[in-house]
Amino acid sequence: MHHMMSKKSYMILCALFVMIFVISGCGNAGSSSDSSAQPASSTKEEAGGESGTRTVSTIKGDVKVPANPQRVVVNWYIGDVFTLGIKPAAVFGWKQETMPFYDKFNGIPVIEKWETEEIMKYDPDLIITYDTKDYDKLSKIAPVLVIPEGKMTSVERLKFLGQATGHEAEADKVISQFESKLSEAKEKLNSDIFKDKTFSIFEDWGSGSYGIYYETGSRGGTLLYDFLGLHKPEKLNTLIKNSGESRGSLSYEVAAEYFGDYVLWFKQEDKESEYAKTKIWSSIPAVKNGHIIEIPAKYAGLFYYSDVASMTGQLDYIIGKLLEQTK
Fold first, then answer.
1. Homologous superfamily (CATH) for 35-166
2. What's the rounded mean pLDDT across residues 111-138?
3. According to a count of CB atoms within 10 Å of the terminal CB, is the N or C end of the chain lower?
4. Angle of helix 308-324 relative to helix 154-165, nearest 10 degrees?
5. pLDDT tens digits along 135-145
6. Full DSSP string of 185-212
């Protein structure tokens, strides 16, 4: 796990963000893969038919899972489960209407607390989680597939889960569509206009709160940096390397130093940016050049997760906005 606030505490912070109708995000699927968490190419069927089991190689060792799980419970990787065509028994997470799989939440119970007693109520036959601590805690309930953040890319993770649950064809189809769009997007961005340009992702929380909050994983960060291969400003790169945190806050006094040539600027519901009213704001090159790409608060759901389906939607939105800059 990254050297940053814990996933559980960050999800609590996310819940607070949602209460005041703003976007937050908690995903940062890194581009590197751990050898113990590779896609389940070594998956082995142990009995024929839907009633059999499958052995899946995971970061916690080999895990026997149902060949065709019927009562999946999942926390952070909700988008992957929906994308595979699986109807979970229950989910732990947020839903919002701009998520590409929003309609699939219909009729699915939402777990209020990710605790053993709560999860047991849904009689799961498979539990999917990001937290390694869940393995020992929840394995007495059902088989647990643990996929820590950063151990697989979003594409690798979807393929892994597809193989682990018997939905490899569904995973391959969605991955193929995403990679085709990604290739087209890279071609469109491969011009002198965007060559060697830097990109930042920010949201203004106010001088009395978090100040300017930067993000490199959620809110489109995984897509921008890990898949499109766009670059962060050097100073932001240095900050992340030295602090070990892929997200964090900047004071109004120094935030301008971390702005890239282009900025994804996330808006908050019914709230104007305090920072955008300062003299510093008008002096920032990205502002003067008209390179601030505003993301209205209503798109909180679209940019919340970093699964393949979400990134496909983000890709359409971001590329459309960037290409508008060339007109």
1. Nitrogenase molybdenum iron protein domain (3.40.50.1980)
2. 97
3. C
4. 150
5. 999 999 999 99
6. HHHHH-STTTTT-BEEEEEE--TTTT-E
